[in-house]
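Quick one:
INPUT:
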């Protein structure tokens, strides 16, 4: 274990321990701002020893914050591949950049370990190395993204990332942004109040990315897949009370292919009391799942209900840079309760697509009239009727005004589980996917 200076407890340190404890209590009571953790320097510039956590010592070797290093960034900079960085409860007001591969950053308690931008810092954690895992903590109140894994501009994509038992809330960008990243996994996350998307997956080839058992709410988009090729799966997750539920579309300069949206709950999207920093995104407002262009997108065994405009929309992409979806499959879903049809064909190219398949969707009304014949799953398909999907900007709220997620179950073995760097991602088997209960 790497440790800082030997601890010597004095009167000044006692006062600082009290302040830290009060900060953690405020966070537990639901304060969505928090107060900064003591960073090791008093107002008069004196460096002192770190405060003591009230939790017992963990049973695993780790670099501890704030015991060994006052800041998360200090611990990250000192870490080597394979290390575990373990964060005690507190509010860490930092922007963290991770350049060390194969490390695990873990909070000891998901609900009392906060990385907090205080609505003044830009990005919570920027991952710029392979194999990084972020576990069991909350990241909130940033002007941009809570977490960004950014391989754009690198000779090769970033490879291997995992977010597990992570909560993000109230940011001006995304909750988790994955750009030019392969083998990324988001599991058991709760993401709320983001002015872009809860999870954004973009600009990747051979993406091999899985989002599962994750909930997004009160955001501009629940899940956003844009310009992503090769195996993006959103599986067994929930998108509710967002402006739009799930958007899978071609990017302005890069297409999207082979995305799978299966066994999800997509409910009650079209929620104006949510932030939005992209006015054009309101083209998708009120849709459960919007497919814009793309090749081979599969929408299987989802429950899609109560969205304010439509359940599933097939159209060109929002940017207007691509044509109709090709070989889209919408099969085995339960789709009900949408005023502008449960499945909407807003197709403009007028071509016969033998791969377009809309089949066995319980309760689904398909529009406009004549659209169903264009998606009979084979050579008998006919040209679809021409129909344009039109959206317009809706009212919104500032991102800090969104609701804060409740306390959520986290890792039960945070103090003993060995650090496992992120590894290759296995896509789910959707062959026998089952529609989830509401």
């Amino acid at each position: 274990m790497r440790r800082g200076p030997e601890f010597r407890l004095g009167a000044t340190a006692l006062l600082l321990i009290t302040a830290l404890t009060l900060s953690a209590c405020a966070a537990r009571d639901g304060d969505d701002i928090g107060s900064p953790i003591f960073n090791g320097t008093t107002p008069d510039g004196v460096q002192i020893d770190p405060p003591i956590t009230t939790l017992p010592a963990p049973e695993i070797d780790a670099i501890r914050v704030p015991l060994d290093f006052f800041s998360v960034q200090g611990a990250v900079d000192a870490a080597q591949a394979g290390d575990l960085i373990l964060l005690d409860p507190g509010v860490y007001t930092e922007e963290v950049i991770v350049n060390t591969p194969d490390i695990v950053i873990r909070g000891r308690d998901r609900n009392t370990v906060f990385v907090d931008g205080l609505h003044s810092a830009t990005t919570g954690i920027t991952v710029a190395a392979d194999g990084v895992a972020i576990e069991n903590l909350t990241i909130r109140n940033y002007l941009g993204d809570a977490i960004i894994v950014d391989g754009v501009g690198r000779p090769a994509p970033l490879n291997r990332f995992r977010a597990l038992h992570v909560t993000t809330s109230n940011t001006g960008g995304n909750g988790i942004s994955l750009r030019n990243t392969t083998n990324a996994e988001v599991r058991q996350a709760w993401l709320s109040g983001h002015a872009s998307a809860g999870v954004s997956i973009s600009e990747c080839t051979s993406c091999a990315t899985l989002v599962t058992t994750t909930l997004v709410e009160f955001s501009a988009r629940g899940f956003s897949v844009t310009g992503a090729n090769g195996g993006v799966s959103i599986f067994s997750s929930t998108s509710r009370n967002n402006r739009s539920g799930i958007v899978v579309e071609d990017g302005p300069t890069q297409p999207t292919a082979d995305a799978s949206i299966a066994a999800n709950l997509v409910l009650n999207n079209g929620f104006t009391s949510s932030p939005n920093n992209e006015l054009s995104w309101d083209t998708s407002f009120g849709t459960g799942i919007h497919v814009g262009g793309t090749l081979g997108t599969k929408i299987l065994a989802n429950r899609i209900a109560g969205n304010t405009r439509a359940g599933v929309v097939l159209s060109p992409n929002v940017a207007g840079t691509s044509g109709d979806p090709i070989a889209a499959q919408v099969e085995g879903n339960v789709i009900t309760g949408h005023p502008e049809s449960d499945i909407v064909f807003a197709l403009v190219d007028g071509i016969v697509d033998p791969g377009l398949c809309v089949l066995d969707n319980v309760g689904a009304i398909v529009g406009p009239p004549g659209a169903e014949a264009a998606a009979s799953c084979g050579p008998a398909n006919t040209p679809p009727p021409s129909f344009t999907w039109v959206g317009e900007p809706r009212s919104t709220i500032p991102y800090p005004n969104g609701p804060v997620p409740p306390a959520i179950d986290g890792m039960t073995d945070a103090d003993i589980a060995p650090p496992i760097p992120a590894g290759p991602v296995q896509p789910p088997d959707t062959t026998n996917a089952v529609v989830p209960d509401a």
